[in-house]
Write a structure and sequence with these properties.
alpha+beta, MetI-like fold, 9-stranded antiparallel sheet, two-stranded antiparallel sheet, 11 strands, about 20% strand
Length: about 400
């Protein structure tokens, strides 16, 4: 018995471990987007990249007008935090002509050239007087490079030269939520967010209203040609959207809705999918309930409002979630019907498309704009997930 329980526990732990790994893999792009949206522009181009936003640490030193960046440099075999006070110092690597392995690094201005020459590997090279242990020693120039001058912030008399590009800067974890404010100011994102919310809410309300009314009519009311009309209406789902663009655009021109938010709302408040979804749900409601309400004197509207709609909350939540995601993320139709220069009527997808060009050198701002457009539908999906799962489960049980 104990062996069986141990085996079950190990199996469950392995399953949870695998599922956790896949969940982390799926969440990583979202986490990376949020983390990058809080970075500085220079931090986004770091290689190798780092997940969390970091910023260099600066220190204030007497005698310098600006704060100086801190770097990790090796001094006498120990890694210390030194401030960079000067960069681009031209230095030379000098060594005795008879022992090139004993190199010394000195600024080019600290050596004295001589008229003497020395033979190195069959080639004559000029000699320089280089200070070593308090003495001037003749040496040849082996090579040149550029280094930075670093000073100990606690003891400015301690200095050292090191390669700035190869030195690791001292950094701290930080965040720049002001990136979101910059995005809103740069691309009028606040107006686009308001337009998107308005269009999405009205489309959701419109689709739910027409779907409930249409679904109830096709499910409960008897009229000539009901089934044929429903099949024809349902068949419109198979028509590709690209075939509707030109005639729909011509209709918008005819009624004068081009470049207006009405063109993003009115044509999309009717949906064959939503009508089909609500019809299928209403069919599952027992007819005895409806007949009892009719005997009690209830009208069709009262039956719909007091019986069918309260019973169809899972289906309504499912349709509202799908409609919200579709209307919020709609891009192609707004791109066709709304002028790019009319930022007053832009929605988020169009604003992000413009932001991609304006902030092409600042990925942190682009991802901040993407986060603004992704977080609201994510919240809606999380809130509606319970109803969506309930709807799918109840449908499976009833089937």
């Amino acid at each position: 018995m104990k062996s069986y329980r141990l085996t079950q526990t190990l199996q469950n732990a392995a399953v949870y471990l695998v599922l956790t790994g896949f969940a982390a893999l799926m969440l990583f792009p979202f986490i990376f987007m949020i983390a990058t949206s809080l970075k500085e522009p220079a931090d986004t181009f770091r290689y190798p990249p780092r997940l969390l936003p970091r910023a260099p640490v600066f220190v204030e030193m007497a005698g310098y007008e600006q704060d100086l960046p801190l770097y990790y440099v090796t001094v006498d075999g120990d890694e210390e935090q030194y401030a960079l006070v000067e960069s681009g110092i031209r230095v030379g690597r000098y060594a005795p002509a008879d022992n090139l392995a004993m190199e010394l690094v000195r600024p080019l201005t600290d050596v004295t050239p001589t008229e003497e020459m020395a033979l190195v590997n069959g080639e004559e090279k000029p000699l320089f007087l280089v200070e070593q242990d308090g003495q001037l020693v003749p040496m040849v120039l082996v090579g040149q490079t550029a280094l930075g001058r670093f000073v100990n912030p606690e003891d400015p008399t301690q200095e050292t030269l090191a390669n700035v590009r190869l030195s690791q800067p001292v950094e701290r974890l930080t965040a720049h939520p002001d990136n979101y404010r910059r995005v809103v100011e740069l691309n009028n994102m606040g107006r686009a967010l308001t337009n998107t919310a308005l269009v999405t809410i009205l489309v959701v309300i419109g689709q739910i209203t027409t779907s409930v009314v249409g679904g109830y009519a096709f499910a409960r009311l008897k009229f000539p040609g009901r089934d044929s009309i429903f099949l024809f209406y349902l068949g419109t789902i198979m028509i590709p959207f690209v075939m509707l663009i030109i005639p729909l655009y011509q209709i918008m021109v005819l009624v004068g809705w081009v470049d207006r938010l009405a063109s993003l709302i009115i044509p999309w408040i009717f949906t064959a999918y939503g009508t089909f979804l609500m019809r299928q749900f209403f069919i599952t409601v027992p007819k005895e309930v409806e007949e009892a309400a009719l005997i009690d004197g209830a009208s069709r509207w009262q039956i719909l409002l007091r019986i069918f709609i309260p019973a169809s909350v899972p289906a309504l939540a499912t349709q509202a979630t799908f409609t919200f995601l579709y209307a919020w993320n709609s891009f192609f139709w707004p791109l066709v019907i709304i002028n790019t220069g009319n930022e007053r009527n832009h929605v988020l997808t169009l604003a992000l498309n413009v932001l991609r060009g304006r902030a092409s050198d600042a990925p942190n701002l682009i991802l901040a704009g993407a986060a603004i457009s992704i977080i609201p539908p994510l919240i809606v999906f999380i809130l509606g997930q319970r109803f969506f799962v309930e709807s799918a489960t109840s449908s499976a049980v009833k089937g």
